[in-house]
User: Fold this.
Amino acid sequence: MKNFLTRVATGLVFGIVLIGSMWLGKNYFGLLFLIVTMLSVKEFCTLIAKHKKTTFSKWWAILGGGYLFAAFFAVYHLGFEHKLAVFAPYIALVVYVFIQQVFSIKGSKLDNFAYFTLSQVYAALPFAMLNMLSTAGAAEGETYNMLLPLCIFIFIWCNDTGAFCVGCTMGRHKMFERVSPKKTWEGFAGGAIVAIAAGVVLSYISDIMNVWQWTGMAAIVVATATLGDLIESCMKREMQIKDSGNILPGHGGMLDRFDSTILATPSVIAYLSLIGLI
Assistant:
């Protein structure tokens, strides 16, 4: 019971901070997700160093992830037109890390190359891409609109709530018991219904998309968020750990909290590009 109350309290504070930062504007949004990006990369590198004995410096990876987010923010929100100049320091950092590994005598070169790259692609890039999403539907002369990034989280929360309620009461058929024993197909269906219903409601609140486009976005978030959760579950099972960290009481680490977002964000961006919204 104590753990449940801790989880609920942490979830409420987390939700308030996330929604509040988005509502306050692009600078607060950027600061929050810059911190989230760097903490996520730190968690990933710490876990990989323990499990795979990688020897590249996690601080270079953290700096790289933070700069990648900042570069996307500068391009999409601050109007930096010379993209090559903005991303050149990041490219230089990545090249430096790779050259450093070539001359290092410690650890496996293949593991160091692969997991440093994964720290950027898996733990940093999806958060950086939120900057792209936060420009969609912005008013004329503005570069920021909180609606679509916030709606990704709304759909994820609706999906999680529906899946939990239906799975606990009606769940019978396991989805992937070997990876995530508690997930059921009934829970997945329940989460999808609640998230899609939220999409219908949003179509009446905002005319940025029609009802079919909103529900399409909800369906994509449900599918990719579930897959993102399963992917992190696979990694944690192989590492034989319960949580990726302990920064969020009752919820674990940043990767535990944002695992659903990692695939959902680029997938939604692809979908919105397809329908011509971004």
